[in-house]
Amino acid sequence: MPRIVGVLIACVLFGGQAGSRAQAPADAARLKQQLVGAYKLVSFDNIDQSGRATRSPYTIGQIMYDSAGRMSAQLSRPARPKYTAAQPTDSERAAAYASYISYFGRYELDAQKKTVTHHVEGAVNPNSAGTPLTRHFAFSPDSASLFLEVRDGERVTARLQWDRYR
Questions:
Q1: How many separate domains does the chain show?
Q2: Which end of the chain, N or C, is less packed with Cβ atoms under 10 Å?
């Protein structure tokens, strides 16, 4: 009789773990399928240490995720000044650089933590290459909007809303 009880307990414990393991990949696959697509930037708020939100000057953008695990992000300030000649001045180059964020690479989802990590391979900012950028994510109930949060530890430092292109 004790052996049967032990087998039942093992089945419950290990069966539950196997179920959890099977569930996690299913959740990750479902979330990846939900994430795949192209989105336009709706809002980008920086959050200060007191929790107060301030609208970022980057108001134009798009982010894309594909089914092969690749992503790219582009953010721009509006009304960027055009160069005055074919060859820009150093100050024009600096202004262009300061008004645009762009990077690409592979991405990785953690379904349990609800995070997506962008593994930056190339970027306008050369210091970004080789860095992982982890974002906490959520979807609107209809999956039309993707919400990303940037965190420093537990503190939210930025919130972005991206609406799926239709």
A1: 2
A2: N
pLDDT digits (tens, 9 = 90+) for 13-46: 233 343 444 456 788 899 999 999 999 999 999 9
Which CATH number characterizes residue 51's domain?
2.40.128.280
- Nearest residue to 67 (alpha-carbon basis) of 24, 111, 40, 33: 33
Q: Give the Cα separation of 40 and 82 in Å (integer).
A: 23
Look at residue 65 and give its three-state secondary structure: strand
Mean pLDDT of the chain: 88
Nearest-angstrom CA–CA distance, 118 and 116: 6
Task: Give yes or no: residues 129 and 61 share one domain.
Answer: yes
- Ranges assigned E (strand) in the chain: 37-47, 53-55, 60-65, 70-76, 100-110, 115-123, 132-139, 145-152, 155-164
Does residue 108 share a domain with residue 30?
no
* 2: containing domain: 1-34
Q: Are strands 155-164 and 37-47 parallel, antiparallel or unpaired?
A: antiparallel
Strands 132-139 and 115-123: antiparallel
What confidence score (pLDDT) does residue 27 get? Answer: 85
